[in-house]
Amino acid sequence: MDNRPIGVFDSGLGGLTAVRRLQELLPHEDIVYFGDTGRVPYGTRSEETIRRYAREDCQLLLDRDVKFIIAACGTVSSVALDILRSLPVPAIGVVEATAKAAVSATRNKRIGIIGTAATVRSRSFEKAILALDETVFVTAEACPMFVSLVEAGWIDPADDVAIAMVRRYMAPIKAAGVDTLILGCTHFPLLAPTIQAELGDGVTLIDSGRETAIHCAAVLAEHNALANNKEGQCRFFVSDRPDGFTRTAEIFLGRSVSEEVESISLT
After folding, report:
1. Among 58, 143, 185, 216, the one annotated catalytic
2. Calpha distance 176→257 (Å, rounded)
3. Confidence class of residue 267 from pLDDT cuts 50, 70 and 90?
4. CA angle 13-190-152, nearest 5°?
């Protein structure tokens, strides 16, 4: 038993989709979430900058005595995995568990990946997939505008802007004939209904936040480190003004947010 919290961080608020999955799977766990809203997005930054941010984000969580860290950021998971592995507590990104789920799901061995420009450029998901099955055909598409779309709240499947954006980005994915698509950014599950409608029911969508939460639960159980809190609590930290956090966070968490949100400076 270990009642210390699980730490989760992302470049913005997209990682709250992973928090949502964690709360569903592990309702007795306390969670500390840090959204680096003052420096979002990470996906357009240089690798050197992303790695520096990752170190700082991890240290912020370690300072709050977390027992496990999830980098709920496809970009960090893609270019700073070695940093996660060097921490004094177990830490995971979103790549490995997601790749494993995709390889298990595909029937025609054609897998698509969508993510930020940095995630796609790193080829991290592709490498993880091919390490599991070198016969899989992989196609990847950077979808940088999806992050802004989600954070603006334009996620209704009937929204004309969302439909047009999804159709544009999904064109090469459809042309590749994939039957499995990795949502390689934690923002993207909020566009899943629109993406599914565009690709059709024959394509399985893999939610990286969900798969990472499942993996976290398994690791904690294996190490007898699950909590027995009566009811898990969340603490939220951001690196910019917390104004508007509640409204946007509700989109990701699927519930109203009553918890206090604290602003922290990393400089």
Report:
1. 185
2. 40
3. low
4. 60
Would residue 73 show up in a list of annotated catalytic residues for this protein?
yes
Each residue of 156-175: pLDDT tens digit? 999 999 999 999 999 999 99
Identify the DSSP state of 5: P
Residue 153: CB partners within 8 Å, gap ≥ 6? 247, 248, 251
pLDDT digits (tens, 9 = 90+) for 192-205: 999 999 999 999 99
User: 58, 73, 143, 234: which one is catalytic?
Assistant: 73
Integer-rounded Cα radius of gyration of the chain: 17
143 a catalytic residue: no
- Interhelix angle for 160-175 vs 192-199, to 10°? 50
Q: What 3-state class would DSSP assign to 31?
A: strand
Secondary structure string (H, E, C) spanning 83-108: HHHCCCCCEECCHHHHHHHHHHHCCC
pTM for this structure? 0.89
